[in-house]
Amino acid sequence: MRLSVTSVAAVAIFATTTVTNASAASGVAACSVTGASGSATFTNWTSDYVDISGWVKDTAADGHHVAIRFRSMDGGTGWVTDWSWRHEYDGNGAVTSFSTYARPTGDDLDYIGVQVAVMEGSTIVRSCTAWA
């Protein structure tokens, strides 16, 4: 009996993380790494559209800049798409906020999240990823 309750709970958790065209959902993804923290809120999320508002903060006087980008994954193929970076160059304590949307050509927004990074030029020094 206990095994069957656990199985039902696991199925219910999986079902709530997958989005279909028939439903619009919302979510939040946030993570921190030494030198940077960031978060994004997702609204009107379907498999082919999502509104995104977020921020990234530089948390260290280390000479590096920080950035955040939206990531999406197609649940059928496992293919991850990395969207454009949003950079913060003003140093320790500075925050960049943004609002945008994503509309891929296919139904590729089954899983969505953010990557927050400390960067040197276009090279990632450290990063973290969180999924909504």
Number of helices: 1
Strand content: over 45%
The residue-averaged pLDDT reads: 86
Annotation, overall tally of beta strands: 8
Q: Low-confidence runs (pLDDT<50, min 5 residues)?
A: 1-22
Overall radius of gyration: 17 Å
Helical content stands at 10-25%
Keywords: Signal
Protein name: Secreted protein
Keywords:
132 residues; mainly beta; four-stranded antiparallel sheet; 1 helix
Plain-language structure description:
- With 132 residues, this protein is mostly beta strands.
- It contains 1 helix and 8 strands; from the N terminus they run H-E-E-E-E-E-E-E-E.
- The strands form 2 sheets. A 4-stranded antiparallel β-sheet has the order 1-2-3-6, with no helix packed on it. Strands 5-4-7-8 form a 4-stranded antiparallel β-sheet, with no helix packed on it.
- The radius of gyration is 17 Å and the shape is elongated.
- The N terminus is likely disordered.
Quick summary of this structure?
Keywords: Signal. This is Secreted protein. The protein has one helix and eight strands.
Protein topology:
Elements: H1 2-17, E1 25-33, E2 36-46, E3 49-58, E4 65-73, E5 80-88, E6 95-102, E7 111-120, E8 123-131
Antiparallel strand pairs: 1-2, 2-3, 3-6, 4-5, 4-7, 7-8
